[in-house]
Every structure is written in structure tokens, then in C-alpha cells.
């Protein structure tokens, strides 16, 4: 059985002059190890040429 997570929320006014959405993260991602994103080496390689 799938776990029940909080559903997204959407808000606007009657004339639709703005739109707000709230997307909640799955609880399983809160304990995930935090890793630095891989950085592109394009700039580094370009400078070495």
C-alpha cells in the first residue's frame, strides 16, 4: 500500500491575478545524504586551452 503524503495546494484569487502553488517534499528525501552537485568542468577546460 502506498503511503499518503500531503497533496499539493493551489491558490488564486477570483480574477486570477496571481497563482501560488505549494509542492511538498516526500518525507523520505528529508533524511537523504546531502551531496554537493557535480560541477561542470567546461569553464576549467576552456581556461586551460
| Strand order, sheet with most strands | 1-2
The overall strand count is 2
| Average pLDDT level | 80
Decide which structural class fits the backbone.
alpha+beta
Number of helices: 1
Describe the protein:
This protein has about 50 residues and is α+β, with helices and mostly antiparallel strands. The protein has a domain at about 1-35. It contains 1 helix and 2 strands; from the N terminus they run E-E-H. A two-stranded antiparallel ribbon has the order 1-2. The longest helix is centred in the C-terminal third of the chain and has 6 residues, at about 40-45.
Which helices and strands, and how do they pair?
Elements (H helix, E strand, L loop, with lengths): L8 E4 L6 E4 L19 H6 L2
Antiparallel strand pairs: 1-2
Key traits:
49 residues, two-stranded antiparallel ribbon, 2 strands
Could you give a short description of this structure?
Helix content is 12%, strand content 16%. It has one helix at residues 42-47, and strands at residues 9-12, 19-22. The protein has a two-stranded antiparallel ribbon.
